[in-house]
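Narrative of accomplishments. A recurring question from our advisory board has been how the design workflow behaves on a single, concrete structure rather than in aggregate. To address it, we present the structure tokens for one chain from the evaluation set, followed by the sequence designed for it. No filtering or post-editing was applied between the two.
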């Protein structure tokens, strides 16, 4: 895949026409990120249950109700990355008292290091600020060193700070400054 100048990369909210591109990015990103320590069968099972078009399309009504936002990064119209942020259990259509979680953020491996993930994270943070929350969370597989370093560079820290060897996913938390009115 060729890289275009970053000025050609556009960001917008997910629409039904993005399903195939999201699925392709997820497939390559999951293989690149987790292929060394998660079996191909488990990766495929996750892709089938989390990135098939019916699951992705199910997100749209919740996005329309401002309970979640699913962003895509496009290079000349082709999906090259995506992120989803929203209220915990957004599908229950509840906001009050709910934490905000960054559910996913993936970029085509050939685009890593070009600022796409940072821009998607910035888009996600606008959701946090719009909803007047001072923090949000994400979960990172403990063997995903690239992901852990990315989030730590972006101001996330382990929460709670423990070393439970049985946990496969680590919880990260980021506190953000809300604009003062």
């Amino acid at each position: 895949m060729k890289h275009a100048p970053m000025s050609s990369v556009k960001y917008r909210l997910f629409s039904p026409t993005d399903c195939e591109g999201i699925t392709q990015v997820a497939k390559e990103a999951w293989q690149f990120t987790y292929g060394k320590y998660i079996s191909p069968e488990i990766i495929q099972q996750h892709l089938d249950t989390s990135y098939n078009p019916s699951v992705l399309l199910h997100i749209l009504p919740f996005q329309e109700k401002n309970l979640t936002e699913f962003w895509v990064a496009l290079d000349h119209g082709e999906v090259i990355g995506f992120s989803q942020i929203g209220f915990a259990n957004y599908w229950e259509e509840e906001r009050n008292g709910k934490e905000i979680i960054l559910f996913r953020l993936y970029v085509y491996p050939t685009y890593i290091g070009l600022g796409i993930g940072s821009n998607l994270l910035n888009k996600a943070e606008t959701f946090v600020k719009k909803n007047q929350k001072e923090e949000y969370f994400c979960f990172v597989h403990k063997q995903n060193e690239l992901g852990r370093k990315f989030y730590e560079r972006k101001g996330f820290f382990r929460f709670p700070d423990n070393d439970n060897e049985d946990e496969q996913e680590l919880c990260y938390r980021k506190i953000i400054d809300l604009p003062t009115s």
